[in-house]
Specification:
Largest sheet: 2 strands, parallel
Order of helices and strands: EHEHHEEHH
Number of helices: 5
Helix content: 40-55%
Structural class: mainly alpha
Distance between the termini: 47 Å
Strand content: 5-15%
Strand order of the largest sheet: 1-2
Number of domains: 1
Mean pLDDT: 81
Shape: elongated
Low-confidence stretches: none
Length: 133
C-alpha cells in the first residue's frame, strides 16, 4: 500500500490523472505533499500541481470516477459527510506546511548538533571550533 509521501502529478509516471492514487491517499489520511519535478526539466509549478490535484478531486465529486473502499465501489454520492470532508485540497496544503515546518525543525536540530559536536571536539583538542578542530 502506498504510504503517501512527496508526489509530482506532472511527470506522467502514472498513465493518467484518473489512475492516480491521490483519492486513496486523501481517504486514508495519508499525509501527502505535492512537489515539482525540477521545474527546468518538466516545466511544472506548484500552482499547476495543485490544479491537477484539484482536477482529480473534482472528477471524483462530479461522478467521473469512483474509488474502491473495503471491496465496495464508492461514488461521491455514496459517501457520508465526514468522508466527503476528506477530499479537500486544504488537507494537502496543511500537510505541505507541516512538512516544511518539520524540515525546518530538522535543519535547526542539525545545526545545533553540529555546533555541540564542534564544541566537544574543541574541548577535547584544546583548539577552537574555527581553528580546524
Amino acid at each position: 500500500m502506498n504510504r503517501g509521501g512527496v508526489i509530482c502529478l506532472a511527470t506522467e509516471a502514472i498513465g493518467s490523472l484518473r489512475d492516480h492514487p491521490l483519492l486513496y491517499q486523501l481517504y486514508y489520511r495519508q499525509k501527502t505533499v505535492l512537489a515539482t519535478d525540477a521545474q527546468g526539466v518538466m516545466d511544472n509549478t506548484m500552482k499547476a500541481e495543485y490544479a491537477r490535484a484539484q482536477e482529480i478531486i473534482d472528477g471524483f465529486k462530479n461522478g467521473d470516477r469512483a474509488i474502491e473502499i473495503d471491496k465496495q465501489v464508492r461514488s461521491w454520492e455514496s459517501l457520508s459527510a465526514s468522508e466527503k470532508a476528506l477530499f479537500d485540497i486544504q488537507h494537502l496544503k496543511r500537510w505541505a506546511s507541516e512538512y516544511r515546518d518539520s524540515v525546518a525543525r530538522g535543519d535547526r536540530s542539525d545545526v545545533a548538533f553540529k555546533t555541540r559536536s564542534q564544541r566537544l571536539r574543541s574541548d577535547e583538542t584544546g583548539r577552537g571550533a574555527g581553528d580546524g578542530g
